[in-house]
């Protein structure tokens, strides 16, 4: 049995805490995945993983062994990547988790432009809005607006995302156009439920940002639903600039209190903390940060 492959399988199972996930990711049968781990345990003469029908965890010996072999595996990956960097073109499936609001034409154009340059790369996109586990679920990359990261992940800042207070002109014709922050109190609101369900909203960042209390008429964790409801005139929404700007330019939406400083947060690319990144991942990160991605028109507020 290939001992190096067995080491890689053991490390992957230990980190993902799942035989099934690793078997699928490494294109092995469940039985063969288990045999690889058993092979390593037989070689070292110790049980490295605790297995139950519901969970997998490291034994004390397994934790010591993983700590010793992980740098060796990472070093092999990095050396191999450096040797092959000049000859390997990006290829394979790039599996990514994205915010719901990136399902918009500008971002799709970036995907199309990247694939025109690298036709051997295909995309597998999750825009469900759920917080995936990159390692356990086998994702290459996630784009997130988040102040904190899971342990073992690193981030590359791509762009600043500005959030605007928006509404349809027809709604504002009916309820009036707020001229001051306090004018928002009692107005119909489209609430992003992970942040606000009671209608209380802090308009900005920091403890001194003004706070208002609007009346939620629709609550959802799906930004697309909230955005469409705003276009239909159901209420006031606070949305990222990227999906809104074409509708603002066309007059289908209006900014409210445009003189108020808009909260801005970082959009980052999140990926497992490894010195080696596959060519598909590294090239897409560079493309996103470059002039055809968030370094150009896509990132403009």
Please explain how this structure is put together.
26% of the residues are buried. Helix 1 (3-16) crosses helix 3 (30-44), helix 1 (3-16) crosses helix 4 (60-84) and helix 2 packs across helix 3 (30-44). This protein has nine helices and 13 strands. Strands 3, 4, 5, 6, 11, 12 and 13 form a seven-stranded mixed sheet that branches. The chain has a two-stranded antiparallel sheet with strand order 1-2. It has three domains: 3-84, Winged helix-like DNA-binding domain superfamily/Winged helix DNA-binding domain (Arc Repressor Mutant, subunit A), CATH 1.10.10; 92-159 and 265-299, Periplasmic binding protein-like II (D-Maltodextrin-Binding Protein, domain 2), CATH 3.40.190.10; 161-264, D-Maltodextrin-Binding Protein, domain 2 (3-Layer(aba) Sandwich), CATH 3.40.190.10. It is an alpha/beta fold. Helix content is 37%, strand content 23%. Helix 5 (105-117) links the parallel strand 3 (92-97) and strand 4. It has helices spanning 3-16, 19-25, 30-44, 60-84, 105-117, 169-175, 223-231, 241-250, 279-289, and strands at residues 49-51, 56-58, 92-97, 121-126, 141-144, 153-167, 188-192, 200-202, 211-213, 215-220, 237-240, 254-255, 264-272.
